[in-house]
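Handout for the seminar on molecular recognition.
Each group receives one record of this type.
Step one: identify the two inputs.
Step two: read the structure output and locate the region that could contact pyridoxal-5'-phosphate.
Step three: write two sentences on what you found, then compare them with the reference statements printed after the record.
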Amino acid sequence: MLPLIKTSIPPRETLMPRLEEVLYSGYVAQGDVVEQFERKFEEYIGGGHTLSLNSGTAALHIALILAGVNEGDEVISTALTAEPTNVAIKMVGAKVRWADVDYNTGNISADSIEKAINSKTKAIIVVDYAGIPVDVKRIQEISQKYNIPVIEDAAHALGAKYNEIKTGNHFPFTVYSFQAIKHLTTIDGGALQIADRDLYEKGKVIRWFGLDKKLSRLDNDITYQGYKYHMNNVNATIGLVQLENIENIIQRYIDNGRYFDEELKNINGVELIEYYPNTKPSYWLYTLKVENRDAFVKMMSENGVIASELHKRNDLHTYLNDYPTELPNLDAFYGKMVHIPCGWWVSDEDRAKIVKLIKSGW
Ligand SMILES: *Cc1c(COP(=O)(O)O)cnc(C)c1O
């Protein structure tokens, strides 16, 4: 079966000597290698400050804290995402206020965000779903107009671009995940890309129990809640090796995505996703809207290709559904959406086969 997601680990000859070195170096905790990984990641993103962490969920949690979200506040979010996006809102004691998606893209709708804003709104989380950048321009405008910070959950969108500039540079906080199935994996891990230097310094303290690593343990005085969220030298070593080849890996997702954009045009029963102006997706998944989805999934599966929705819409989770909301665009989108394999493991033959299957009907 051709899978929808697959873990990418560098070749043994490249990775193992570096791993062996760090494992027996006597220093496997957070040290210089973590620092090196952060500086390299900043270079890759092309701006901001990288706070490396042990998960993307930790990055969401710290972003919400740095954005000043407290108990009883509200955060506007989308239900079309992986659960951590919205579970993190509950971690700071805030409530999730749903905005609808844009039917053409599956991403959070700027109009719907604006309608959902009220006096309790303290942050907006936007997700570049499946690697498709959000409507950056309009969301930046809303953020400025109402003075509400935006957290971009770019766990699906490493290497995606707006105006030729990578995700990580468009909002005060951008979240990355290095979990097993993401574009770049450190096995587990994450990063929060932070625009502001002072908030970055505060983030470092929050990720380490509220302790400042620049001071000795005895000189430290904890004045607010911190967590154990830091990355370690072992995961950072894997991250450094991954970064050496990340452009090639992501380019293969993009090449496959663009191939599908061209080849799946004008097919009966298929609607393609649209992209916002001046955006370049990094196609973590390739999403289609199809008529008669169950039959589509069955036909693909009978021919050796996995197709699926992958995520459950988050408003169907009782604990996350603080304010049950009519989401007509999401209803329409979710009723038809399906992902097909698009990543680095999809060969030229595989993608040609997928197109042929879809053209043959279901
Ligand atoms: C994977 C993912 C996360 C969380 O990342 P972890 O590293 O698993 O904590 C957050 N948001 C989205 C959209 C994700 O896909």
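Reference statements: The pocket of pyridoxal-5'-phosphate is lined by residues 55-57, 81-82, 84-85, 127, 153, 155-156, 177, 179, 190 (CB under 6 Å). The first helix runs from residue 12 to 23.
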